[in-house]
Amino acid sequence: MPPIPGKPLILYLTVHEKSMGCVLGQHDETRRKEQAIYYLSKKFTDYDSKYSPLEKMCCALAWTARRLRQYMLYHITWLIANLDPIKYFFEKPSLSGRIARWQVLLFEYDIVYVSQKAIKGSAIAEFLIERAHEDYVLVTFDFPYENLMSILHIDKEEHNEDIWKMYFDGASNALGHGIKVVFISPKRDYYPITAKLNFDCTNNVVEYEVCVLGLQTALERKAYALKVYGDSTLLIYQLRGEWKTRDSKLTLYQKYIS
């Protein structure tokens, strides 16, 4: 469901040794039930995996806020997690360079840490607790379409060794809308990202959501030379300016990406 204006969001954040997952939700109009809005999961890089548990939580919160910026920027967000990174950010007298950068990224958000007991029985919380000690299974990314089309131009003068690749795909079924992105670094390292949209939307919106997720991550990784591959002909031609749309929802995505 899309978020209700004026109501706080609830962010459940779980961090494991090598991965993190989160669910963004909100109380419904009755305030008796919570509805999920967005799911995200991410595997830490080998470097990130060496962080302390609290540093991983801070890293995960900063990454999540950037991925869900279009939601969290306009709502108060109640954070529910095993550790309180907000308290750490603002009470520690001196912060390391990377944590200071995460702190700066979070300044524009209104995030409040809330203990689990302060939230009434939640199916979302139970979902996370049941899996709190399970290892994430690495997702297999299968792109069945052979004719992938690039939507960003790479100049021939650029050195191939500096070019990143991004593959994105979205899928819809009776259980919801899933999106997935795979980044391949110039050194051939693979970085998979998955998310789930838990609100009603068209297949075209799903494709734009996954493209936005991927491009945001590319900027985060400073992948300025990027080849992008996707299976949505409509999205590709619209971003190139060769096709036009009158769908107000899609035009907003186009403006955001451009």
Automatic annotation (TrEMBL):
Signal sequence, renumbered to the chain: none
The residue ranges of the Reverse transcriptase RNase H-like domain are: 5-109
Domain spans labelled RNase H type-1: 181-252
Q: Which GO terms describe its molecular function?
A: nucleic acid binding; RNA-directed DNA polymerase activity; RNA-DNA hybrid ribonuclease activity
- Keyword Nuclease, does the record have it? yes
Entry keyword Protease: no
Highest taxon in the source lineage: Eukaryota
Q: What is this protein called?
A: Uncharacterized protein LOC111289121
| Taxonomic placement | Eukaryota, Viridiplantae, Streptophyta, Embryophyta, Tracheophyta
